Amino acid sequence: MQTIAALATPPLSGALGVIRISGDRTFELARTVFTAKNGLPPAQWQPRSLVMGGVFVDGTLLDEGLAVRFVAPYSYTGEDMVELHLHGSIPALRAVLEALYKAGAVPAAPGEFTRRAFLYGKMTLSQAEAVADLVTAETRDAARNAAGQLAGVAGQAFSQCYDALADLLANFYATVDYPEEDIEPGKPAEILQEVLNTLETLLATAGKGLLLREGLRCSILGKPNVGKSSLLNAFVGHERAIVSPLPGTTRDTLEETVTAGGVKLRITDGAGIRETQDAVESEGVDRARGAAEDAELLFVVLDGSEPMDGADRAVLDFARDRNCLILINKTDLPQKLEREPLEAAFLHVLPISAKTGAGLETVYSTLRRLYEAGDTLYDGSVLTNERQADAIRRAADAVRNALKGLREGITPDAVLAELERALAAAGELTGRRVREEIINGIFAKFCVGK
User: Fold this and answer.
1) CA 240 from centre of chain
2) Tell me: the pLDDT tens digits for 182-199?
């Protein structure tokens, strides 16, 4: 494969910028742009040790920094590799990359460094996917789980299932092809049941994994001017929505992803719920109701400085049988709303001021309590990848069918097709039996430089 090079840090000015080079010509190409102060060429640098030096482009000193050499197969990709740790000037970093490309390197495609690590056997396919999850993790639990998957927690379970199915399939083929040998069948039903138990245990974590990856779908609901847009701005931390005393200011839905109380939230704010003759606002109200219908959690906002009216009651009736937090807003003003009836009807009634931030920490702690991991250990055992979940479902279905056939006395040759199907699906989890288009699709989602 060609020697590749790419920026491994975000393309933004900062204190540090890292350029990664990998392939057979790595040390030769690194020498064209980096000169070590100890006078040694890259091929003679101490592996995994930082070397100080200067970066030269067209014979001119452009920067000073550090470099580190990795010798195959003891590198991230499994190839010879060099990382240049320079100052984070984007123009300077681009100039270095252009010099490397001119010398014979090629730009790395998205995920190509990790793809090479997979192809060279440095990690399984599930571990490679965990790299992407770790890079994009937005909560501590998501990062912990991705790190556990990268360490091989889930991959070990995948491999055990694959190996058990492969051994069983080999035994079945031997029994069918050499019936005269009187081969000991072992205990295939027990083995299949163990594999099925493992697959079902993994699948049972998919719900929490989806919450960890995608976040909780939430909707802010209330009549006009109760402070819905102010609440969204408080969650986001900046003026995302226009705040105005005029009713009907918000007409379309706004969506933001935030982390509150350690929980990832996908929040939708829409028009205030009311009857209106304005066609555009009416469409906005319909969209707000639609978003609330799809939400897993509602933030119902009431104006604490005003008595409850019919519009408030209509919103509360909509939320009554749903997961919701009743937020009595504007506690910075004199209060006229009676809380006792609300506290009798709803589990979570919380006074807040979206304007000053008072009470928001109570909202965050409530979210943390309602949606915390509980007994779940986000150690890599929680399934967060839909592709993996689909492969596990297919493997489990095939194992279930094979197990049913064995218990009904069907001959081994009739069970082989289901075992083959199960093995193929299990192989997709680790990458041992996976189609090229699946691999291409996985790494196309990576960032360049990783």
Assistant:
1) 24
2) 555 567 888 899 999 999
